[in-house]
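Bug #2210: C-alpha cell dump truncated for RIP metalloprotease?
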Amino acid sequence: MAYLLGVALFALAILVSVSLHEAGHMLTAKAFGMKVTRYFVGFGPTLWSFRRGETEYGVKGIPLGGFCKIVGMTPQDDDVDPADEPRAMWRYPVWKRTIVMSAGSITHFALALVTLWILAVSAGLPNPNFPSTEAEIRQEPAVVALSDCVVPDNSVRECQPGDAASPAAQANLRDGDRITSLNGQPIDNYGELLTALRGLTPGSTATIGYVRDGQPGQTRAVLAKTERPPLDDPEGAVTPVAALGVGLIPSTPTRVTYGPVAAFGATADFTGEMAVNTVHALQRIPQKIPALWQAITGGERDMDTPISVVGASRLGGEAVENNAWLVFFMLFVSLNFFIGVFNLLPLLPLDGGHIAIAWFERARSWVYARLRRPDPGRVDYLKLMPFTYAVILIGGAFTLLTITADVVNPITLFSR
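Reproduced locally. Full output below:
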C-alpha cells in the first residue's frame, strides 16, 4: 500500500506541476492583456467546468497534463474572432510573448528552487564535500561498515544462501571501527587497506589492528574470496582476491542542513550543478536509445538511461515505501528542472520553439530595416509543420520507448 500511495502521490505532484506550468502561461498572458479563452487540467472529455469572465476553467477526464488557449498564438490561427484581433498574442511585442511562453518553464524552475530551499533548511542537501571520486574515497580514513556477506563475484547484489559470511563480523569488528594495521602493516586510509588486502591470499588469516571509541584493539580474521579488477584499472579483467567484508563509512556527512539565509546560497550552488547535469543528460539521450532497447528486449537496465513519468512515479513509490522522503522530493526537484529546461529547447511545438521564432522575426526585421528593405513580416508556421510533425513523431516514439522500458524493466533504487 505504501508503494501504491507513493506512486499516486508522485503522479499527482507531476499533474500539479504541469497544471501550474499552464497557469503560468495563462496568468502572464492575462496580465499583458492577451485573451485566454480556456484553461483545463487534463485532456479528453470535460468532466466539469465553469466560466469566469472570458475564460472557461475546467477538468477533463484524462489526467495527463493540461492546456490553456491563448488567442492568436501564431498569425496563422484561423479561429480568431475579428473583435479579438487587437488582443491576438502574435501582435504583442516580442518581449511580452517571450515572458508568456517562458512562464511555464519558469514555474517549473520556481517549484524546484522552493522545494530545494525547504529541503536545505529541513532535511538537508547533498554535501558538496562528500567524497565522490575514487581518489577521494581512497584518501578517507579506513572507518568501516560491516557487510552482511562477501559476494563471491564482481557484482552488486543482495546476499544469497551460500555466500561467505563477513570475515570482519566473525572477527567481532563493529561498524565505526577504524582499521589501523593489517598483518603489522600500518593503514592510514581506505586506499591503503584495499592495497594491503590485494597482497593477501583468500583463506589466509590476517591480524587486524583497529581503534574503537579511542581505544586500540587487535583481532584475527580468515579472509574470504571475491573477484575484483585491478585497483588501477577498474575496467580490467577480474581475478580472485582476498576480502574482509567491509565497506567505507565516509568522514563527512552525506547531507548538510543550512540556516534560512545560507540556504539561498546552497540552493543556488546545487541548482548550478543540476543545470550542468541536465545539459549533459540531454546530450546523452541519443546514445542511450540502444541501452533502452536492450532493457526492453531482456538486457540489464542501465541506471543512467532516461526515464518517463511512469518510471519517475515508480521511483517515487519506492521512496515512500522505504520512508525515503528526501529521495521523493529530490526526484520531484530533478524532474521539474529537467522539464523546465526541455521546454525551452528551440524546437516546435515546445515553448522554446515559439520563443526562438519570435526572436528570429525580431532580428530579421532589424536587419531588413538596416538594409532599407521592406519588413518580411511574420514566419509562416504552416511551412514549418512538416518539421513540427517530425519532432512530435520522434518525441512520441522516444516517450513510448521510455515508458515501455519503465514498465517491463524499470530502474529501482531499493530492493523490494
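Output looks complete on our side. Residues 1-125+285-408 form one domain. Marking as cannot-reproduce; reopen if the truncation happens again.
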